[in-house]
Input
Amino acid sequence: MHELSLMTNLLDDAVAAAAGAPVRAMRVRVGPLSGIVVDSLRFAFEALSPGTPADGARLDIEETAPSLHCPRCGTDFSTPVGSYDCPSCGATDGELRSGNELELVSIEVPDHV
Output
């Protein structure tokens, strides 16, 4: 389960970005072609966050659809996994622009008064 090592890295990045403040929430973007099992990523967060500045934080996971660019007609399009034909010209050689990502999009920390 490589999600444990991936979540370790995400937590490290979130804690570093928080610069000593507690982390209340993390927003993560996961593409369907990334090979990441979202439930396993959630499990890893629940297992790894206790005792860290992210203890008790909320994990928000945004799942994306694959996004492609057609080099033949220039169309940019999103599509379900497994259906990669260009909707404009029918070409099957689209360039993957997103869908394989794992990104820490944002963190939430308390306001400093």
In short: The mean pLDDT is 94. Residues 3-108 form a domain with the hypothetical protein PF0899 fold fold (CATH 3.30.2320.80). DSSP finds two helices and six strands in the chain.
